[in-house]
Amino acid sequence: MSLTSLPDSAGVGRSHYWEVLAGRSSPTLNWLGMVAEALEVPVERLLAKNPPLRLDKRFVVRGSGKQETSVPLYAIEDVATSKQPEIAGRVGVRSEHTDAAKLFVARVRGRSLEPNIPAGAYCLFRLGNLPKAEGKIALVELHEEKDPELKAGYTVKRVKKQGPKSITLTSEKGGAMTVASSKTRFVAELLEVLDEVKITK
Which of 38, 93, 180, 192 is the most buried (most CB within 10 A)? Predict the structure, then answer.
């Protein structure tokens, strides 16, 4: 894929795209996610190749909350399947959620939750088991099943039904998967999409 065709493939504005490449404008995390999705590479790779956008820089989420706290940025596959995920950076979040020790940011992969949660969107999650998960969107580790779209041992889906023996997970497009409760682990609850995230130097 050429540099000139990339903005169309990623669905980003051409003028802003060239401003970012020239170093005259800073991209949002969602913008980076869209470009990374088009290139089929982790967003961390884009940041690593561009010194002004190193992962050790801070991010700021400009939201309506009153409290600002710094939370870790994880690769979603790491936090879903590892008890000690590697921190890829930190995100300053203005949020009404007060349990900061359990909060983290990760980029959602796949399109099963579109249009509410776009592929590549950066979202705020809260770690922990969900005893009452019905109706919530959750990051779930799958011990034996694979996510049909991602072909991975985890998924981010809406919990339609939660029973003692099985859990039914659905996409926003109507697809559903039922898995044994004993073969899953609720990793975190998705709290919100961070559509106003901006990188600061």
Answer: 93
